[in-house]
Write a structure and sequence with these properties.
heterodimer, A: mainly alpha, 2 domains, two-stranded antiparallel sheet, 14 helices, 5% strand, globular, B: alpha/beta, Rossmann fold, 6-stranded mixed beta sheet, 4-stranded antiparallel beta sheet, 27% strand
Chain lengths: 369, 234
Amino acid sequence: MTTLTLESLRHDKRAAIAATAVLGLVLAVLPFAVGNALGNSWLRIVDFALLYIMLALGLNIVVGFAGLLDMGYIAFYAVGAYLYALLASPHFGLHVPIWVIIPCGAVLAGFAGALLGAPTLRLRGDYLAIVTLGFGEIVRIFMNNLNAPVNITNGPQGISGIDPIHLGGITLAKPLTFLGFTIPSLHAYYFLFLALALLIIFVTIRLEDSRIGRAWVAIREDEIAAKACGINTRNIKLLAFTMGASFGGVAGGLFAGFQGFVSPESFNLMESVMVLCMVVLGGMGHIPGVILGGLMLTVLPEFFRHSAGPVQQAIFGKILLDPEALRMLLFGLALVLVMLYRPAGLWPSTTRRREFKGESTTDVLKEGE
Amino acid sequence: MLEVTGLRVAYGGIQAVRGINFHVNQGEMVALIGANGAGKTSTLKALARLLNAAGGSVRYCGKEILNLPPHQLVSAGIALVPEGRGVFPRMSIVENLQMGAYSRRDNDGIEADKEHVFSLFPRLKERAFQLAGTLSGGEQQMLAIGRALMSRPKLLLLDEPSMGLAPLMVQKIFEVICAVAKEGMTVLLIEQNAKLALEVSQRGYVMESGEITLTGESGALLEDPKVRAAYLGE
């Protein structure tokens, strides 16, 4: 359904402009609506959802486009976050401006991505998953232990007092006054994150449509055939790792500035799994699906957290199950249901949908997954 | 055009190809036949640089290609149709053909070549926007050949195009291979179906346990009592 309307938008220019205007208006009003109706804790969740959307889009390049199963993706988020924390906090007494740190974070994370990609070029599927999982853990353990003999990361205590994001002379930590309007801090972060998320979406869409994007998909479909078509599979795979990782680095830097605190705790395996779930559940390789996945998987657990207690109170008169435990249970259940009833994801690409419907019975899944 | 000398391929300690020599002249169709496990596919994979040769030399148009990375072979004019077809299952037929032209940038030429492939395989044109994974085995083989042609090769390497196909489909595919060869394409054909391969090719090599044991005009090989006994079931 949704894709059908998207298709018609592609053909009808006026409808497309109208839809863009409506979407822009919704996105502009959203933080004020959420902030007023649901409170600031929900606005924080929306801000985080934008960060996770950036992460999911980055991982989508590696997993969705190039078909390389990466279980340690959060390591690149960690690289970006720690870079920001080290360069803009009292820890080293450095206060580098954000427009230097974020690009540096993207480059450093991209380099880390290439570092992971180079030795794993021959691996695929479950083998690659295990190596990348190990890589993710190595990065986390490094952060955990680099406090001796020289204290670089401050170990398990993490780094606190990180500078809030400031652009030019304006800090986002305090309400901004802009043309007579006052924009609270969380709203300002929302608009910054939204701008970068839109930039990443734009880059991803352009990439998908490019020779590089087609080469990624070819490698995912059949690596030998891709080589036989004249694709330099080594470079193209490295590029997937690098591009994906650099998005993670950008999101990580924003996270550190937003949160004001980083510790190795935030970058554990569960986080990698979560981002992977966003990609798979949303619809692997399909950009709108991945965005939806990132949004859902950030908002749903929080929704369960907030509603599990009151709902029990209303039905049973008392709280029978710890909301914290119940929320993971419900979340797990939601994942199972989605995979059972929408195996291609919540919003799959037309190709995937055709394939899962089995438009013809022969050799549909020749290569398997 | 293609000059193979002393080519060796090994998997660990096991030698699959033990120093073979053969050549393919410009405009000629040459068949490399042999039983399962004789080393035919290993030879072809080494030529297409999908496998590292253990030794020997392969000269293409006078230039050594064993040290080239695989993706450069395509722009040099060598196209491989991999064993077991190897189409991109979740791309449509048109997208598969466009991937074949990945190394080219002349959009008009690509468009013209696509039409040419469709004229060779009208079946593909009927299903242009169908996913390749949903095609029948024979249609996938057609698509794999079509995709290889899209790189506008000078030398076409075919790995077992008849494998697993119904006899009628095999006949159709071979008609097209012959048509392509008639247009002046140089073809190296690897086949288990010795009779068919020798009927369409000009010269043939017989491979056994990693060595070339017989060679000659295809017609003569078809009459050879050893070939008849070993491969033609007589």
